[in-house]
Q: What sequence folds into this?
């Protein structure tokens, strides 16, 4: 989620058991993934990739991607965030989605609080789906470092996917063995979602 933008109003979980639940966002400081883009991402991934998946939502902000995944049948979601305002909203959003799923929040989520680069450098846990919606300037200044850290967290199976939200004009330079499977975007000046996996 990019800092310094006002969030869109009336964001909601777009599918699954918690469909329609509002997503709360701070008045400023984050740029949550829009309903339209999230719905396009999960439509492209398909139910089979999401069902029972272990999910990492990096630069989580309000938690929209990870919570959407849980609503649509993911087994567990881990969130990475450090902003206090975003985390207050995330707590409320997590509680609402967990209630809709008839689950205790702690049973289906973890929080890794701190700077994403530092957090990702620790441990070796891997995930079936990794979502990354960082401040857009990181794609300009540290995209190689960020991609390396994120791809290292993907499980070693052919269906594992990294989903990056980035400016529409951004072109990733992927390490050998990785391919861009799909780009979801309206145009070069609009946010896009890139779905990356093993080639």
A:
């Amino acid at each position: 989620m990019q800092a310094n933008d006002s969030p869109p109003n009336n964001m909601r979980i777009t599918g699954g058991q918690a469909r329609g639940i509002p997503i709360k966002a701070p008045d400023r400081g984050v740029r949550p993934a829009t309903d339209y883009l999230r719905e396009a991402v999960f439509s492209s991934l398909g139910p089979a990739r999401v069902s029972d998946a272990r999910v990492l939502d990096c630069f989580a902000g309000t938690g929209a991607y990870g919570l959407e995944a849980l609503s649509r049948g993911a087994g567990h979601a881990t969130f990475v965030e450090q902003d206090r305002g975003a985390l207050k909203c995330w707590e409320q959003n997590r509680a609402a989605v967990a209630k809709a799923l008839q689950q205790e929040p702690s049973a289906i989520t973890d929080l890794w609080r701190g700077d994403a680069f530092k957090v990702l450098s620790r441990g070796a846990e891997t995930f079936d789906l990794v979502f990354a919606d960082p401040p857009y300037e990181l794609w300009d200044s540290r995209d190689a470092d960020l991609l390396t850290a994120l791809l290292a967290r993907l499980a070693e199976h052919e269906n594992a996917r990294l989903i990056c939200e980035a400016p529409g004009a951004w072109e990733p330079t992927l390490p050998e063995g990785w391919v861009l499977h799909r780009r979801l975007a309206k145009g070069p000046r609009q946010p896009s979602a890139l779905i990356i996996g093993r080639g």
